[in-house]
Amino acid sequence: MTDNVRFATANLHNMFSTGELELDSPRRQAQLRLLASLKPHVLAVQEIIADDPDPHIKTALARRRLRLLADALGMRCVTASGVPALAVGNQEFHAGLLWADGITPATEGWYGISGTNFWHSLALQSLDVGGPVPIVHGSVHLTPFGRERRADEGERVLVAMTRPADHPPALIAGDFNSVSAACIRAPRIPGEPWWGRYYDSELDRALWRPGLASYCEITLDADTGERSWLADRRPTAHLAHAGMIDTACACSADLRPTVGHWPGSEHPLARFDQIWATPDLGPALLQYDTIGDPRVLDGLIVAPAALADHVSTMLTYRPGRLARHLS
User: Fold this and answer.
1) Mean pLDDT within 294-314
2) Which of 312, 256, 315 is nearest to 282 (CA)?
3) What is the pTM of this model?
4) Cα separations (Å) of 300 from 30, 31, 88?
5) For strand 245-246 and strand 273-277, is the pairing parallel, antiparallel, or unpaired?
6) How confident is the model at residue 46 (pLDDT cuts 50, 70, 90)?
7) Which of 36, 73, 99, 277 has the smallest number of Cβ neighbours within 10 A?
8) Which pLDDT score is estimated for 324?
9) What is the CA angle 321-87-29, rounded to 5?
């Protein structure tokens, strides 16, 4: 294992919605080339599509499709218990984890959460990436509708990152369907919340449309009838207030939207795709990138924004710097 680990997240935008031959389509081939070019050591994915009235068939189909994706990328996805690291969602959308050769899934380190806890799901796998202890990596997809439920799901992500008290260090990546609640100032005491103004700016007030009701707190002035709205940051406020780290903020990354570019999408132009870390990983965080710029791959120009309604993000961290004891 190299000194630095690259952990990326990708909402795949309905992958396999037309069947498994879809992987051979020009769009999906370009998407695979893009993901492979990042050389991730761990990849969190959302929106693996599989559906069937029989839950057993649905689960088997979703797991098979995660294996197909892993094979196409030359990565691994099978846990120590022999099942793919895929958390079956309540709908047809599923979240999973892939990892590169040289990374070992910990025994009894796999946990998938959905059912009544998530509209979609949360996949968790403890991985030996060469550091002093295994690190939990997660792939999450919060609900696109129902702000109260999304806030509740954010609290459940916090529970998954911090309980029980001796929980190992954790990184959760995915589609949070909300603007980050991270603040810009590092805590005076390690492990305490970051503070100050929000890292992510407020949503554009000039671009009202009804779809914003899914992502914003909306008010009407009683005297003028003027409508105003603020991003609903409650889902990740649970994380921020408990001292969890938005890794983009900790790495002083350029603020770049991950959604809002897709034609016909109801998403605002915002950074919905995020990677959060437990405080003990703070010293290990090195670099955060949003994969939005076109690039030449195998002689072809690949434009990430033309491949999916989300663009990927990637964290580079050094597990050897893990701080196991916060002062």
Assistant:
1) 94
2) 315
3) 0.95
4) 9, 12, 35
5) antiparallel
6) very high
7) 36
8) 58
9) 85
Amino acid at 35: L
Residue 78 tokens, joined: 């099978």
Rounded CA gap, 268 and 246, in Å?
Answer: 20
Instruction: Assign domain 5-320 one CATH number from 3.40.30.10, 3.60.10.10, 3.40.50.11270, 3.40.50.150.
Output: 3.60.10.10
- Whether omega before 164 lies within 30 degrees of 0, making that bond cis, reads yes
Q: Could you tell me which of 172, 5, 11 has the C-alpha nearest to residue 102?
A: 5
> Whose CA is closest to 134, among 285, 242, 281?
281
pLDDT over 90 at 265, yes or no: no
Residue ranges per domain, the chain?
5-320
Q: Tens digits of per-residue pLDDT, 158-209?
A: 999 998 888 899 999 999 999 999 999 989 887 889 999 999 999 877 678 8
CA distance 119 to 116: 7
* Three-state secondary structure call for residue 193: coil
Helix or strand run (H / E) with residue 229 = strand 227-231
* DSSP notation for 58-119: HHHHHHHHHHHHHHHHT-B-B-TTSSBSEE--SSSEEEEEEE-TT-EEEEEEEEEE-TTS-S
Work out the widest C-alpha separation in the chain, in whole angstroms.
Answer: 64
The per-residue pLDDT for range 52-72, each reduced to its tens digit, is: 999 999 999 999 999 999 999
CA distances from 291 to 10, 98, 109, 249 (A): 10, 18, 29, 16
pLDDT of 322 reads 87
